[in-house]
Amino acid sequence: MAEERVDRSWNWEDPAGLGRRMDEFTVDLARCDSLETVATGPKFTRRQLADLGVTGIEFAAFRTAHPSGLGTDLVGLQSPHAATEPGSIYRVDGSSLYTQLDVAEPLPFEDGSVEWVYAEHLIEHIPLPVAVDWLTEVRRVLAPGGLLRITTPDLRRYVEGYLSQDKFFAKHRRRVQLAIGIAPPMPARPAFMFNQIFYLYGHRWIYDETELRHVLARAGFDDDAVRVRAYRDGARQDVADLDQTIRNDETIYVEVSDG
To answer: Which stretches make up the Methyltransferase type domain (predicted)?
Structure first.
């Protein structure tokens, strides 16, 4: 990294300060050139979604890469002349579809309205009770036989990295460095590398397979239908292909089919 690009005000050991910096980055990412309202709620029907070519929802995504997906996030998008509001679906820059929503509230979709739901590195950002309520809503909006794919940092991988002192922490530090770009190097101390997954990035709860099965069961999913998958491997390749390479070293991939 070029010395002049390093932001010396960046402090890896200050969770609150880093949270504010991440919020600034998010605002920049939420900018777009144009927004066109294409549907209004307050609750979107299966017919409305089908007319837009939507078959599924990607949470925590300003612009989903799925050709028939609907991106969603708590943060709204903003163009030079408009801004998103909850309760409407927008076409972003003439291509992808987006709706602003809060996963802590009932989802604005009718029962059985989508075939798939994808959420990459979202569930760790919300408290456990909110996660259960959100997953209950996800189950409601999935059509019979629909697929949910969740990815999240794997607590087991971090525990193993700390106890075995293998090269996971060193390799992950390099990945984070490349992803953020302007930050100084992450501290290499094992205790820091273990703690940061709990306290940085706005994380609220970290999961392993057992904990994911727990919240899915509380939301009404059948535990026998839960499957641990690998990176970009799943029941639907088009959904599994949404997995991001930058996160695959630390991630657990879980799918469940409802009905």
So the answer is: 99-149
| Cβ density class 126-138: b for 16+ within 10 Å, e for less | beeebbbbbbbbb
Residue 108's alpha-carbon distances to 8, 83, 138, 235, in angstroms, are 42, 19, 11, 26
Lay out the sheet containing 142-153: strands in order across.
Answer: 35-40, 88-92, 96-100, 69-73, 56-59, 114-120, 142-153, 251-258, 226-229
Determine the structural domain holding residue 183 and report its residue range. 1-26+155-202
Count: domains in the chain = 2
Distance CA 207, CA 186 (A): 23
- For 42-56, what is each residue's pLDDT tens digit? 999 999 999 999 999
What pTM does this model have? 0.95
Please tell me what DSSP assigns to residue 55: -
Residues 194 and 252 in one domain: no
| Tokens linked to 17 | 């300060």
pLDDT beneath 70: ranges in the chain: 1-5, 259
